[in-house]
Amino acid sequence: MIRPVLLTIFAAGGMTLAGCMPTPAGLASTPVVIETPEGQVTCQFYLDDVVLWDNAIAQPEGMGEATADAYCVREGERRRDSLLPKSTSSPITLAPTSSGP
Q1: pTM for the model
Q2: How many CB atoms lie under 10 A from the CB of residue 58?
């Protein structure tokens, strides 16, 4: 008898969490045109720090979709990397912790 109640609670919780998840459509940027050796590719970017959804929405005739998408992902990575802070300090070395008093 408790199982149907728990199942309902888990299902409701899962649907609530799914409703909070961002979708590409809600995060779309203004399309960006980039120059490639084969011609202009129009890219759709979504998040500044994630390139998972970045894709081409237009490419030159004769260029495959996968190639155009790869150009957009590369450009998204370039943009992401340009936003990351550059570390000027030396690496941190952690000392081992003692396990006793």
Answers
A1: 0.62
A2: 13
